[in-house]
């Protein structure tokens, strides 16, 4: 979720969020990490979540419009891929620790 909010504001690297307008703009909140004093936890604010919801609605509408161009075969292929895509979307969002790369941030 954080990465999507970052991308919506022209940022590609969520590790730089502390130096970006995301915090200043009220989209991301920073709190001290109680387990690691060197780090801060980042989480979307209400405004950030609202922004993300708007972006998702706009993308859904765009995909719906563009899907009308697909052939029946392409529609079946897309339908077959939906369970995998839903699996990826069902992963819970976890707070991101600023300043420390996670295993997937390389």
Automatic annotation (TrEMBL):
<dbReference type="InterPro" id="IPR036388">
    <property type="entry name" value="WH-like_DNA-bd_sf"/>
</dbReference>
<dbReference type="InterPro" id="IPR036390">
    <property type="entry name" value="WH_DNA-bd_sf"/>
</dbReference>
<dbReference type="InterPro" id="IPR052526">
    <property type="entry name" value="HTH-type_Bedaq_tolerance"/>
</dbReference>
<protein>
    <recommendedName>
        <fullName>HTH marR-type domain-containing protein</fullName>
    </recommendedName>
</protein>
